[in-house]
Amino acid sequence: MTCGSCVNAVSRALSAVPGVETVDVRLETGMATVRGGQVTEQVKALLGALATAGYSARAAGAPHAQPIDSGCARVRPAARGCCCGH
Q1: pLDDT at residue 57 is higher than 90
Q2: 50 has which bridge partners?
Q3: Contact call for residues 75 and 48 (beta carbons, < 8 A)
Q4: Does residue 62 carry a pLDDT above 90?
Q5: CB distance 29 to 10 below 8 Å
Q6: What pTM, to 2 d.p., does this model score?
Q7: Of 29, 43, 66, 86, which residue is the least packed, with the fewest Cβ within 10 Å?
Q8: Which phi-psi region, left, alpha or beta, contains residue 66 (left: φ > 0; alpha: ψ -120 to 50)?
Q9: CA distance 22 to 11
Q10: Which residues of 54-78 are buried (b: 16+ CB within 10 A; e: fewer)?
Q11: Which of helix, strand or coil describes residue 5?
Q12: Which helix (H) or strand (E) segment is 71 a member of?
Protein backbone atom coordinates (compact mmCIF):
# COMPACT_ATOMS: atom_id res chain seq x y z
CA MET A 1 0.00 0.00 0.00
CA THR A 2 1.36 3.36 -0.93
CA CYS A 3 -1.39 5.94 -0.38
CA GLY A 4 -4.77 6.76 1.12
CA SER A 5 -6.54 5.39 -1.95
CA CYS A 6 -4.89 2.02 -1.33
CA VAL A 7 -6.05 2.10 2.29
CA ASN A 8 -9.63 2.76 1.14
CA ALA A 9 -9.51 0.02 -1.50
CA VAL A 10 -8.12 -2.54 0.98
CA SER A 11 -10.70 -1.55 3.58
CA ARG A 12 -13.58 -1.89 1.09
CA ALA A 13 -12.34 -5.28 -0.14
CA LEU A 14 -11.97 -6.72 3.35
CA SER A 15 -15.26 -5.24 4.57
CA ALA A 16 -17.09 -7.06 1.76
CA VAL A 17 -16.10 -10.51 3.09
CA PRO A 18 -19.06 -12.10 4.92
CA GLY A 19 -18.63 -12.12 8.69
CA VAL A 20 -16.28 -9.14 8.83
CA GLU A 21 -17.46 -6.62 11.42
CA THR A 22 -14.61 -4.08 11.50
CA VAL A 23 -11.52 -3.33 9.44
CA ASP A 24 -8.62 -1.14 10.53
CA VAL A 25 -6.07 -0.48 7.78
CA ARG A 26 -2.87 1.35 8.69
CA LEU A 27 -0.73 2.78 5.89
CA GLU A 28 2.13 3.45 8.32
CA THR A 29 2.54 -0.22 9.22
CA GLY A 30 1.16 -1.75 6.05
CA MET A 31 -1.19 -3.87 8.15
CA ALA A 32 -4.91 -4.50 8.16
CA THR A 33 -6.64 -5.82 11.28
CA VAL A 34 -9.97 -7.51 10.64
CA ARG A 35 -12.47 -8.42 13.35
CA GLY A 36 -15.57 -10.54 13.14
CA GLY A 37 -17.12 -13.73 14.37
CA GLN A 38 -15.15 -16.26 12.31
CA VAL A 39 -12.49 -14.22 10.51
CA THR A 40 -9.62 -16.39 11.73
CA GLU A 41 -11.21 -19.23 9.78
CA GLN A 42 -11.70 -16.99 6.73
CA VAL A 43 -8.12 -15.90 6.10
CA LYS A 44 -8.21 -17.46 2.61
CA ALA A 45 -11.37 -15.47 1.82
CA LEU A 46 -9.74 -12.26 3.10
CA LEU A 47 -6.61 -12.87 1.01
CA GLY A 48 -8.80 -13.72 -2.00
CA ALA A 49 -10.76 -10.49 -1.63
CA LEU A 50 -7.51 -8.54 -1.62
CA ALA A 51 -6.25 -10.42 -4.69
CA THR A 52 -9.46 -9.55 -6.52
CA ALA A 53 -8.90 -5.90 -5.58
CA GLY A 54 -5.37 -6.04 -7.05
CA TYR A 55 -3.30 -6.59 -3.90
CA SER A 56 -1.10 -9.49 -2.96
CA ALA A 57 -1.19 -10.18 0.77
CA ARG A 58 -0.10 -12.60 3.43
CA ALA A 59 -1.41 -13.41 6.86
CA ALA A 60 0.56 -11.64 9.55
CA GLY A 61 1.25 -12.62 13.15
CA ALA A 62 0.18 -10.50 16.08
CA PRO A 63 2.58 -7.96 17.55
CA HIS A 64 4.53 -9.16 20.58
CA ALA A 65 2.46 -9.37 23.78
CA GLN A 66 -0.77 -8.73 21.89
CA PRO A 67 -2.29 -12.11 21.00
CA ILE A 68 -4.94 -12.36 18.33
CA ASP A 69 -8.24 -13.59 19.74
CA SER A 70 -10.53 -15.96 17.88
CA GLY A 71 -12.35 -13.11 16.15
CA CYS A 72 -9.35 -11.22 14.78
CA ALA A 73 -6.99 -11.69 11.84
CA ARG A 74 -4.19 -9.52 10.48
CA VAL A 75 -3.03 -9.34 6.90
CA ARG A 76 -0.22 -7.43 5.23
CA PRO A 77 -1.38 -6.18 1.78
CA ALA A 78 1.10 -5.14 -0.91
CA ALA A 79 0.05 -3.17 -3.98
CA ARG A 80 0.85 -4.64 -7.36
CA GLY A 81 0.57 -1.12 -8.71
CA CYS A 82 -1.03 1.84 -7.06
CA CYS A 83 -3.98 3.64 -8.58
CA CYS A 84 -2.09 6.92 -8.19
CA GLY A 85 0.94 5.68 -10.13
CA HIS A 86 3.28 4.87 -7.23
Answers
A1: no
A2: none
A3: no
A4: no
A5: no
A6: 0.77
A7: 66
A8: beta
A9: 9
A10: bbebeebeeeeeeebeeebbbbbbe
A11: helix
A12: none
Would you say 3 and 27 are in contact if contact means Cβ atoms under 8 Å apart? yes
pLDDT confidence tier of residue 67, bands split at 50, 70 and 90: very low
**Among candidate residues 51, 57, 60, 1, the one with its CA nearest the CA of residue 28:** 1
DSSP state at residue 81: S
From the CA atom positions of the chain, what is the Rg in Å? 12
pLDDT tens per residue, range 17-51: 998 999 999 888 888 888 887 777 788 888 899 98
CB hemisphere CA count around 57 (13 angstroms): 31
The DSSP symbol for 53 reads T
